[in-house]
Amino acid sequence: MKTLKQYILEAEKKGIAIGHFNISNLETLRGIFNSAKKLGVPVIIGTAEGEQNFIGTKQAVALVKSLREEYDYPIFLNADHHYSFDKVKEAVDAGYDAVIFDATGMSFEENIKVTKQCVDYAKSVNPDILIEAELGFIGSSSKVLEGIPEGVKITEEFLTKPEEAKRFVAETGVDMLAPAVGNIHGMLKGGKDPALNIKRIKEIKEAVGIPMVLHGASGNSAEDIKAAISAGMSVVHINTEIRVAFRKALVKSLQENPDEVAPYKYMKDPIKAVENIIEEKLKLFSNL
To answer: Catalytic residue among 72, 80, 86, 193, which?
Structure first.
């Protein structure tokens, strides 16, 4: 089987993107995998620190690896938004396929320093592991929001700057970059998220020359996501929309079956709700 990097580079050449979807439980993983397998496209499973702690680091690796081996299928595991070298090291040592080091709370110089430390360690353990970094703050919570998260500014002067991105990539050696281009983590309660800055995506892509990742795509319009992929995004992250769909379906299932106590029975509808969301997103990302 090809490596995750090879699949991402193929997507980049085709002008499409690979879907990255976060999980907190086996049911969500099953829903994501079912849809990816149905469409025959590679998929990335993500666990941020909280999700990873809930599932278990080694358990998350084992779950994804079991699907990959049983079905000979390109499903990969990413340690999403890890905030320290120690947490990155934990994911690398456990066998994750990729790790995102998020140092947006640090200064630019400190971000470069610790990101390079993460890259150097990861490559010494497994040359095929991908290290991604985030440059520019887009918030940190995958939930339904009343408004733009505190500290996030989406006007042009606050977005990731191409010249800084170029220097950052050159000095850290990261495999992928997640820039701030008008995107926000979570999704707005009142409707669609603000439009992405497609022009800035193109400028950053030209400057860095490596695959880029769109975070916080829950709530963005299909048109915006397609334009972002055409402009240079090769991986697209969705989390909040999955959580919302799963929770709504679970609540409805429990209300309609108040006496049912077997989880494998009342979890069928939530899994199907996840499948529907994932199928819609994967078709969009892959132009299917």
So the answer is: 80
98-135 tens-digit pLDDT? 999 999 889 999 999 999 999 999 999 999 999 999 98
Task: Tell me the domains of the chain and their CATH numbers.
Answer: 4-286 (3.20.20.70)
Query: Is 80 noted as a catalytic residue in this protein?
Result: yes
SS3 213: strand
The residue written with tokens 């402009």 in the block is 231
Q: What is the largest CA-CA distance in the chain?
A: 60
For 39-52, letters b (16+ CB in 10 Å) and e give eebbbbbbbbbebb
Alpha carbons 47 and 62: distance in angstroms, whole number? 13
Q: Is 189 exposed, middle or buried (0-12, 13-18, 19+ CB in 10 A)?
A: exposed
Residue pair 62/281 in contact (Cβ under 8 Å)? The answer is: no
Quick check: 15 and 232 in contact, CB under 8 A? no
Indicate the pTM of the whole model. 0.92
Alpha helices in 107-148 (DSSP H): 108-125
Question: CB of 172 within 8 A of CB of 116?
Answer: yes
